[in-house]
Structures are given as structure tokens and as C-alpha cells.
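Whiteboard transcription, Tuesday session. T.W. wrote the C-alpha cells on the left side:
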């Protein structure tokens, strides 16, 4: 676990504990700028929330100041009403957060990202159900439509297929044996995809997620 002040940036936690083989799992698209206090206020998630949960699942305790100036210590171990869970997503309306204890996760031995392009959103959505149906819970599973693909590729230039009507990013992590076993099953499910690519390095892995994480500023650039 790590005890941090609310002003600490999300990504700074992972950077600080990387030397110990640990990281903080929730990774909203704004993680390079957003603070952990803001994450608690909004109960932020990120591309890896399917497997590792939202902020509420990764916060062990918080300290808050009430409107009367009283300090409260809220913990996952508290009996009775789940006030810790209530504070997550309360948008700062129930108290001022002064300290947060977060859960840290062990860095997986291996992580691979599969990028699959499809000729329709329906086909892409169907394979999501097929992946879950075989009891595989990906570390990350995100779908983008053609508008999002064009916007992010124009902004981040990561190599997304511009002719695809929908794009699926599926990350598998764990031991090398576990990842390979799940990867074989996922590739079989995605065999009908018009485009298929598997990350071969950590750099490529991060690059494939880069476009998805830049979706918000990419759309903002178009609007401006």
C-alpha cells in the first residue's frame, strides 16, 4: 500500500513504486495530469478497470475533514455503513480529503495487447461477449468506432487501421504461460477480424494504448 496526499498525480504513484515491481492499477486517460484526490471524488476507472476495478476497489482508507472541521478516518476494515465507498464518487460534497491509502498491484510478468479491426460495430461488440464467454477477463478491453479511430490516429499516429469501422484493443497479462494460453483463445475468437496485430514489445504495447488514452484531446482538437 501507499499513503499519499490528494494532490499527488495518478501516474506519479506508479512511477514512485515501479522499482519495487508494483504499480497503481486505475489509469484514467488523464492519468499524467489528474490527481488521486480527484480520482476518489469521481471514482475514476481507466482502460484496466475491467480486471482491476475502479478507484473504489483500490482505495484502502482515507482521511477527511467534515463541514464541522472534524477529522474522520474511513477504512475498508470499518464495520457498519460503508462510508469509504460512499466517499468514492461523491465529488467532494461530503468532506475534504486530506490523505489517501491506496492498494498497489504487482507488475505482471508479461502483458500483450491485441488490436483487431472490424467491418462493423456489431461484429466488434459480439467478440467482446465471446471473449468473456470463455471466462477470460482481459486486463483491458476497449472498443472504438470509426470516428474515434480517425480522430485518435490523426492526433497520436499510432497505426490504427483507418478503413476499420470498429477497433478492439484487448490486453492480456499475467505469467508468460497464462498470457500465451489466453492469447491463443482470443486470436481464435478474433479470426474474422479484418485487421489483427499483437504487440511484440513493451514499446508497442504502450503505443497501441496511446491512441485510446489520447481520445479526449484528439476530439477536442477537432472541435477547436
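and on the right, the sequence the group agreed on:
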Amino acid at each position: 500500500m501507499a499513503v499519499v496526499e490528494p494532490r499527488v498525480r495518478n501516474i506519479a504513484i506508479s512511477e514512485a513504486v515501479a522499482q519495487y515491481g508494483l504499480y497503481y492499477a486505475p489509469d484514467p486517460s488523464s492519468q499524467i495530469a489528474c490527481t488521486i484526490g480527484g480520482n476518489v471524488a469521481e471514482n475514476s476507472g481507466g482502460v484496466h478497470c475491467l480486471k482491476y476495478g475502479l478507484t473504489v476497489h483500490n482505495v484502502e482508507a482515507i482521511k477527511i475533514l467534515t463541514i464541522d472541521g472534524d477529522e474522520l478516518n474511513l477504512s475498508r476494515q470499518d464495520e457498519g455503513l460503508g462510508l469509504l465507498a460512499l466517499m468514492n464518487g461523491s465529488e467532494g460534497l461530503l468532506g475534504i480529503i486530506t490523505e489517501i491509502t491506496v492498494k498497489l498491484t504487482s507488475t505482471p510478468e508479461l502483458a500483450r495487447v491485441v488490436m483487431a479491426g472490424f467491418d462493423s460495430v456489431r461484429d466488434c461488440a459480439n467478440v467482446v461477449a465471446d471473449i468473456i464467454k470463455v471466462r477470460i477477463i482481459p486486463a483491458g478491453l476497449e472498443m472504438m468506432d470509426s470516428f474515434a479511430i480517425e480522430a485518435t490516429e490523426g492526433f497520436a499516429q499510432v497505426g490504427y487501421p483507418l478503413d476499420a469501422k470498429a477497433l478492439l484493443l484487448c490486453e492480456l497479462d499475467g505469467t508468460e504461460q497464462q498470457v500465451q494460453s489466453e492469447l491463443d483463445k482470443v486470436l481464435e475468437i478474433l479470426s474474422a477480424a479484418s485487421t489483427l496485430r499483437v504487440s511484440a514489445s513493451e514499446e508497442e504495447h504502450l503505443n497501441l494504448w496511446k491512441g485510446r488514452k489520447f481520445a479526449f484531446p484528439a476530439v477536442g482538437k477537432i472541435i477547436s
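Someone added at the bottom: Strands lie at 2-4, 22-23, 59-65, 71-75, 96-102, 105-106, 110-118, 140-145, 166-174, 195-198.
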